[in-house]
Amino acid sequence: MTYGRESVYLDHAATTPVDPAVVNVMLPYFTQEFGNPSSIYRSGQDAHAALDRARTQIATVLGSRTSEIIFTSGATESINLALRGAAWAARLRAPDASTPHIVSSAVEHHAVLHTLDALARQGFAITLVPVDETGRVDSADVIAAIRPETCLVSVMLANNEVGTIQPVAEIGAEVRARGIPMHTDAVQAAGSLPLNVNALNVDLLSLSAHKFYGPKGVGLLYVRKGSQLEWTQEGGGQESGRRGGTENTAYIAGLGEALARAEQGRENYVTHTAGLRDYLWRAIRDRVDDVSLNGPEPGPHRLSNNLNITIDGVQGETVLLSLDIMGIEASAGSACTTGNSEPSHVLLAMGLSEEDARASLRLTVGRGNSIDEMDRAADALAEVVDRIRMLAGR
């Protein structure tokens, strides 16, 4: 049983259970340590100390200053702050200059793409760089898209649907050499890839705690000292005046602990999940005909826990509903678009047809999974696919 549950959970890219050790760190701040971190008396200063500890834990993982960490409600807010903040800062610095321009990729999470759509409606210029058949962007294409008025480049570190790892450090070195800030959505990478911001050559980095065994509803934005952002949330001057609103002490404490633990266990996690993922892929191929892999082959360009497949002759959503009845929890793509009738924009950008994109599944393993569960999932998938194909007359 995964995490003590009867179902087999294979959607860790969507969210993860909170590590019990993280829960233990959080609990005091719901009860006896409930002070407002902006207050000057003891309970408030105890809460403020918890924020400082979390900032130190995070800065250690990122190789940054503690002052460069801003706590947010999650990666979506962090991404909005990075993109909107950079765009509006550029416009306000030179209101009579050319329209500020942002470069990104066609396979970004919707938190990026929808924010860019909103900025385009506000008059900013946007360029989305295409990807190859594995979902990987060419760094030369990103650099070629830069204009004199480019104010930001944003490329995700690892894709949430197919697990493709992007050449962010290579891109960032070229972008920053041109005096342009570089942002990366690193949400899927925490606990799987190194996050040192200097090695990655980024000025802005977004994370969300619930992707690495922390609580939902809290995240961070790393902002390199000297980066110019127009802050979007006014209030009481929290986060050094960069994001108003009383900090969520318990969740921030959990964020810091979860990221520290994810980094400490990263090598073991990668070994564990890669073994499970590879076993599951072999098991599925042994049991299911006409199945193909989406994204890079398992290896250095793919997240260790990610498996995304297309099964000919089925609808992914139909398969998921049947799997759920059999106690297997998986996804047809990004959790944020579940229920959306549109095929995956990531798979379409990689060159898949709409039919193949709709016939795809995302299976992402995690800490609590076992080999026995991989066999159970592969058996269930084979049974479901056989039944669907039989009903379709195949």
Please give the radius of gyration in angstroms: 22 Å
**Uncertain segments of ≥5 residues (pLDDT<50)?**
none
* Beta content: 5-15%
In spatial order, strands of the major sheet run 2-8-7-6-5-3-4
| Helical proportion, percent range | 40-55%
CATH superfamily of the largest domain: Type I PLP-dependent aspartate aminotransferase-like (Major domain)
CATH fold label of the largest domain? Aspartate Aminotransferase, domain 2
Distance between the termini: 34 Å
Shape: globular
The secondary structure category is alpha/beta
CATH class identity of the largest domain:
Alpha Beta
Give a description of the structure.
It is a single chain. It is built from 13 helices and 12 strands. The protein is an alpha/beta fold and 394 residues long. It folds into 2 domains: 8-17 and 265-391, Aspartate Aminotransferase, domain 1 (Alpha-Beta Complex); 20-264, Aspartate Aminotransferase, domain 2 (3-Layer(aba) Sandwich), CATH 3.40.640.10. The strands form 3 sheets. The protein has a 7-stranded mixed β-sheet with strand order 2-8-7-6-5-3-4, sandwiched between helices. α9 runs parallel beside α13 (371-391). It starts with 7 loop residues before the first strand and ends with a helix.
